[in-house]
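WARN  no MSA supplied for this record, continuing single-sequence
INFO  ligand: zinc ion
INFO  echoing inputs
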Amino acid sequence: MAGRRRSADLTISGRAYLQGELKDLEICVSNGKIDGVWVSSPNEYSEKVVADGKRILLPGMVDMHVHMRDLNQSYKEDWFTGTRAALFGGVTAVFDMPNNDPRVDSLRVLRWKMEEASKKALVDHGFYMAVPQKLEELHRAREFIFGVKLYPEDILSGKLPDLMRELYELDLLAVVHAEISGDELLGIRRVLKSCRGGRCHFTHMSSPAGITSLLESKLFGFQVTMDTCPHYFLLTSSTDPRMSVRPPLRCDDDVKLVMNSVRTGLVDAISTDHAPHTVEEKEAGVPGFPGLETTLPIIFTMILDGKAPLRMLDLYSSRPAEILGVNKGALLPGRDADLVIYEYSTRRRISSEDLQTKAKFTPFEGIPVVGGVESVYLRGELALSEGEVNMIKGKMLRPCANTGLHSKE
Ligand code: DOR
Ligand code: ZN
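INFO  complex generated
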């Protein structure tokens, strides 16, 4: 397809997902990057066929919204267990939220978190920052962060216009938790009113009204993108305290509409909002679910069962990579060689007992899925192989100015 055929560090051939289609590909990897991709026929496969039978080769997934906790909350999750869970879920890049203890609202705490992650992470990782106490710290933080997370209190604050001006000047992505007391529209309106043409990503969108409002704002020329999470297109609200999450789960009609927006690609991305808590905390109603290990199997099963198009894979791989401007999420020459071999010969049910994350409650308990992740290559190195983790070091990802979807002209 592209690239020169020459000696490679690794060659993988087999059925693979490429830009909305399944193809028989031969993929060569050199120096951690995909060096060449050729369409082949099964009888032309090189000797290193690893994706045959009921196996498929996928790009490593990109999760643009996770909470790895650690620091003073490592009892919930730490960078080792969280990224290990990512590997088991076929995720090779995670982007971590700043609502830690302590909150990542200063360069000092950001550096502390970067340091912890660099010691423990098993997949590549990027960071967001909370609105810093000293706004001027954003200038120096700019090179380390993919965006600034806006929480409801930031949106309601009188300082929002100043903040949005600063983000615009620095070409920093505003990553917005728009839901305020269940309503997403107020948050969307307030942010877009002061965004000044800057880049805004609305995360974990849960309501059809919110999604429609963002689609309208796209038509009006705002540089907005949005993601939703599997729980918003699969699960309806419940009185079970363990099913607590922010934004909250919605009624059946809303869930169906959010599902439609995912199937038809009206939302730009899927994220997990992997938010680990202990079982005791969940029983006490603390909001948030783990999701890193369940999302790819859920997506893959929907596709295999004919409930979603193949393109749904893009929402958890190439699209978030594009929004954040990272060289990941697709089996294309020049991209990082993050590869997943997904095996789909068996059916099973999701069970909290099988999870690697410290959070042993999943809202998807008992849901039938097909197969699972068999092996993962991180930048060309075998990081996970049939349940064995090879301790390949995850790399910190840095933003590359003007490569995102919304780059300034
Ligand atoms: O349910 C949630 N849990 N929503 C959030 O916005 C935060 C997250 C967490 O950190 O636990
Ligand atoms: Zn979150």
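Confidence is low (pLDDT under 50) at residues 402-409.
INFO  checksum written, moving to next record
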